[in-house]
């Protein structure tokens, strides 16, 4: 199957296109309901983890106490779930529950940025039988990989030496959180807590308590996160995917800043950077977009995907907000740092094009790259550290 040209037909899917007139408004209502369900899932995950007690949380903390292990865990988890949004949402929930410290979670967020790039790399393999087309598609896919690798390498070292991201995020969070004699009770958090309590009541009615109740919340929270994000993605892809190509082609005639904005807005809308980048790869493969024009849109997707962690932080406390801000700062600083230096901007492009040339000559480069980058190195990182 050609992943570069295949288009899934959702036209007969009752979830995406309900019968009768007025289907459009139904989709937007469904999106609001799914978003609310997503927030409840985050709260359930947080409560479920807390319910296992301090011994359990201390055991989990020991497993990611080393920053290199945290980085590797972030990569591998994201590769397995095929979504950095799920990873960062889970991290926010863990931090909100007190299972992870912000410092331990920062490397995991960085790892999620690397792990999510495997999706568009796999999409590019759909062009493998057409030499020139595959070369362009594979270069477009891996330029995102190399960008994230470069930024993570630099920012990881800086963070370990100075704690810059965590310190800055805490400062921003302190400014955002209302302070003073009174306290602000968020209506969103109140509604989400009520939803979580409803699920808890159902589990308790079924006779679950203590460890069993915590396990049920944890499992249900994870399943609900997957279901909500997957369905949101399906609906939004049908709503705006046909507009994406026009927006991206328009970005060619605008500045790099405009292209970044297009990528960010599109990704915020579909709640998935993988969709944005996976739309770009076949366009580059077919020659519609050059890698130089597509690169800023991918950087915008990196920024846009941080909205999910922010939404997840609405269901947690201040610590969850801090790690969500870390995610925003990391991706924004990385994008600005690369784009303001023309020579730096050419490094990931040159690396991607060089790898694509070798991949066309010998397909084993593709297999070796995917397995070493996304599976072997993360596993070794976890085992060693």
Write a compact overview of the structure shown.
The chain has 385 residues and is an all-alpha fold. Helix content is 80%, strand content 0%. Residues 1-11, 18-22 and 178-184 have low confidence and may be disordered.
Total DSSP E strands = 0
Proportion in β-strands: under 5%
The end-to-end span amounts to 39 Å
Largest sheet: none
Helix and strand run: HHHHHHHHHHHHHHHHH
Tell me what the structure shows:
The protein has 385 residues and is mainly alpha-helical. The chain has one domain (23-384). The protein is 80% helix and 0% strand. The chain has helices spanning 23-50, 54-63, 67-81, 84-96, 102-115, 118-124, 131-162, 164-176, 187-205, 210-252, 256-270, 273-285, 291-304, 306-313, 318-339, 342-361, 364-384. Helix 1 crosses helix 4 (84-96) and helix 4 runs parallel beside helix 14. The two termini are 39 Å apart. Residues 1-11, 18-22 and 178-184 have low confidence and may be disordered.
